[in-house]
Amino acid sequence: MPLLKNGAVVPDPWIALGDVAPVPGDGPILVSWARWQSEAGVLAGRNAAIGIRLKNDEPAEALGPFIGRFDLVALEFPKFTDGRAYSQARILRERLGYVGELRATGQVLADQLLFMRRCGFDAFDTSLPDPAAAWRKATASFSGFYQPTGDGHATILDLRRRPTG
Amino acid sequence: MVKAAEGGSQVATANRLRDGAVVFLGGGGEWTPDLQDARVAASADEAHGLTRAADEAVRLARIVGPYLIAVANESGRWIPQSYRERIRAEGPSLALPRAAAAKE
Amino acid sequence: MYRYDDYDRALVSERVEQFRDQVRRRLAGELSEEEFRPLRLTNGLYLQLHAYMLRVAIPYGMLSSKQLRALAHVARRYDRGYGHFTTRQNIQFNWIKLEEAPDILADLAKADIHGMQTSGNCIRNITADQFAGAAADEIEDPRIWSEIIRQWSTLHPEFSFLPRKFKIAVTGSPNDRAAVRVHDIGLRMHKDAAGEIGFEVIVGGGLGRTPMIGKTVRKFLPKRHLLSYLEAILRVYNQFGRRDNMFKARIKILVHEVGTEELRRQVEAEWEQIRDGALALSEDVIAGIAAHFAPPAFEALQEIATAVEVLRAKDIAFRRWLDTNVAAHRQPGYAIVNLSLKPHGGIPGDATAEQMDAVADLADRYSFGEIRVAHEQNLVLAHVRRADLETVWRAADALGFATPNIGKASDIIACPGLDYCSLANARSIPVAQRISERFRDVAREHDIGDIKLNISGCINACGHHHVGHIGILGVDKNGAEHYQITLGGSAEDDAAVGSLLGPAIPSERIADAVEALVDAYIAERRGGERFLDTYRRVGSRPFKERVYAAA
Q1: CATH topology of domain A3-161
Q2: What is the ipTM of this complex?
Q3: Which sequence spans correspond to the domains of chain A?
């Protein structure tokens, strides 16, 4: 599936592993949270990047103690109407201080890209016909936001308080 | 996928996508607001024909939410068998507010 | 009232352009209905029985005269000349074309009006007391907080795909006119022992299939914590609300299934993490919003207007209207005027474009250009000088908006029902019309006194029938319209869900049944009891006997 990151479609270097597939000697691997929990020793011992696939009914807070070890966390939108991953994303970014790639997977549609970015996603598994164009359109669609999130945007309330001129 | 009704005479109904108008699949394959111009299916095969045409019209972004409804012929006019579909075909059962505007 | 600044305007107009593009893609077949439906719902556009219906947001029921004229313009230009005011203080237009919806929203945006989040699984219109800023019994103006919540909840990136819709109501008065106990979150402003004003936070109220009264999760929340606390509640709900069954997806089910104590624990654990963060409300931000709700330039007047008292003594029609439709104002010499949109035999809550324009003119002349929408589907001119009451009465009467029935038997709350709504099982408007006709005799209606009749055309309960003193629910029984009666509901501080009286009654007998209920009340009442008081004292038996006697 094409990976949209930094406004462009890029190759995806991550090797997605099922729960029983053998772990390769090197290369960045993406494993389920369940697999990390049962094989953390082995997985952490590799001299290569680890990514975690978290289901949307697994608690994001649980990654807290290990958060510095992951270079990728992949969250899921099984249907685009299932919005649990938006909360997981914010917890990972804003509470746990996660700085690696935060990837949206599942049913990722153009009209939700901006919400996803605001919640901290910076990479998107998407089957959109022109992901880069969809990204440009989504990120240009609104100039102001009422709510503070971890995306660094000043909110409308902040902007109102700044002295003008 | 269009939902099918059971037995008897049926027509396909939907809302026109662009304006929401209640429409029925007509004899010539067009979607018409007049139930009396609807193509009436008398058998399961004919009902499947309605369903296929409706699914195609959804694909072509002409209509939305099609389904089949039961109709019966009363004195030469086709009448929907449920009171919900009668209201849908005929409009609200009320005198709309325009007629009852400010007191004279 | 709140005046948009450039930031608010930019957001609304950007939203219009976003929706315009979504509509274009839908009509071109680039978006399926499944992909488009949530997008149009979060702009207020439903596909209904006969056409698209647009539900326009009227934030906490407040309109300027310019805004009311913009609504009249939409009714006239794009619809069939009228609109319907709803039980959540919004307005609905029933005959909308999808291809015109972006232009409609663009026209509304010029008056700072939108349809954002009036549908969909997101935070809906924040509703409040229609007498806000005017009522004599108000502790603090709930509109300040409603506006703060409105901004926080608009296009919230984390909470736009909730398990289900989410409704918040705010009351600033101990006499709750906003039905806070039957909302997903109800906020009741009150003072703590030290005299500080804060919020009682009530969670998990709601009507529909499983009506429930909300539970107090926090007795006193200081104002500066309002948004962080709401965010904590929504985050818990977004993560743990059920998504497997749409009929069990509201927060009331979560509260019911985990228990109030556990929900409180989860909310407060989440809140501890965020309470002192970016959502903490500083004094200057609060003051900035509050400044929009400063009282208008009231004149210094005597409380009593002699002309009103003289006319009250002479003219029985004027006296009756004063008794029912005029409420006390906190400012001496002023009054709150209710415009009844429930003429006997009329369609509850509907207004034509001409009526809307005329009310806008009245507001400009007599009420500082403000109009409010009550969740009882009436309109309110909140700041009328008592000296102008006669003039306003005559003008309202000429419009058909002076029926002296506020809070009385013919002030029926009714959803649009099967005449308009694709969810309905039965019609509600003709039932409301037939019942209200039975109470044309004003003397009798006033003798019956305060009574709330609510009619819903289906179990979704948009007519709030569960909290009616008399609730009527339309059902389909063997292919014919029947109506179930519930008694003893209340949406006020004594909130309660009504109890089913007996088997459903066929359409042709429902008006007789309502008269039988009223007759039972008249026969049983003592002292100054209202219908609800008598029912609570004597129980359902006398009512049941009369209603089913001729069965």
Answers
A1: TIM Barrel (3.20.20)
A2: 0.97
A3: 3-161
Residues C421-447 pLDDT 10s:
999 999 999 999 999 999 999 999 999
Tell me the DSSP string of A57-105: TS-GGGGGGGGGGEEEEEEEESSTT--HHHHHHHIIIIIS---SEEEEE
| Site from C98, C104, C342, C399 to mutate, B interface, most B CB atoms within 10 angstroms | C98
**For residue C551, is pLDDT > 60?**
no
* Residue-level pLDDT at B3: 53
Mean pLDDT computed over C46-57: 96
The string of DSSP codes covering C68-106 is: HHHHHHHHHHHSSSEEEE-TTS-EEEEEE-GGGHHHHHH
Report chain C's mean pLDDT, rounded to a whole number: 96
Spatial separation of the C-alpha atoms in residues C444 and C440, rounded to whole Å: 8
Nearest partner of C72 among C350, C348, C336, judged by Cα: C350
Q: What is the pTM of this model?
A: 0.95
- Name the band, by pLDDT with cuts 50, 70 and 90, for residue B8: confident
A160 at C interface, C-beta within 8 A: yes
> Of all residues in chain C, what percent carry a pLDDT higher than 70?
100
pLDDT of residue B97: 75
Tokens for C75, please give them. Answer: 């009714």
Contacts of B61 in chain C (CB under 8 A): 26-29
Contact B96 C82 (CB under 8 A): yes
Q: Report which of A66, A144, A76 is spatially closest to residue A116, judged by C-alpha positions.
A: A76
Contact C278 A148 (CB under 8 A): yes
Quick check: B97 contacting C, CB < 8 Å?
yes
Domain boundaries, chain B: 9-91
Nearest Cα to B79, choosing from B28, B15, B30, B8? B8
Average pLDDT value for residue range C159-164: 98
- State the average pLDDT for chain B: 88
Residues of C in contact with B22 (CB under 8 A): 49-51
Contact C218, C169 (CB under 8 A): no
- pLDDT band of B100, cuts 50, 70, 90: very low
The verdict on A147 touching C (C-beta cutoff 8 Å) is: yes
Closest CA to C486 of C447, C514, C511, C444: C514
Backbone angles phi, psi at C9, to 5 degrees: -65, -40
- Neighbouring chains of B at 3+ CB pairs under 8 Å are C
Q: Which residues does chain C have within 8 Å of residue A144's beta carbon, measured at their own beta carbons?
A: 7, 10-11
**pLDDT (0 to 100) of residue B96:** 83
Instruction: Kindly list the structural domains of chain C, giving each domain's residue range(s) and its CATH number in brackets, ordered by start.
Output: 6-109 (3.90.480.20), 134-292 (3.30.413.10), 306-399 (3.90.480.20), 413-548 (3.30.413.10)
- Residues C95-119 have pLDDT tens digits of 999 999 999 999 999 999 999 999 9
The distance of C213 to chain A (nearest Cα, Å) reads 26
- Chain C residues with CB-CB distance to B88 below 8 A: 49-50
Question: Using an 8 Å Cβ cutoff, are C62 and C127 in contact?
Answer: no
With CB atoms and an 8 Å threshold, state whether A142 touches C17: no
For B90, the token pair is: 């005929």
Choose the closest CB to C11 out of A109, A142, A149.
A142
Placement of tokens 């103690």 in the chain = A65
Separation of CA B96 from chain center: 22
Q: How far is CA A90 from CA A60, A97, A151, in A?
A: 9, 10, 10
Give the tens place of pLDDT for each residue, B49-65.
999 999 999 999 999 99
d(CA B26, CA B9): 14
* Residues of chain C with C-beta less than 8 angstroms from the C-beta of B2: none
**Tokens (6 digits) for B13:** 């109904």
Of B61, B87, B94, the CB nearest to C347: B94
**Which position has the higher pLDDT, A118 or B2?**
A118
Helix axes C306-314, C389-399, angle to 10 degrees: 50
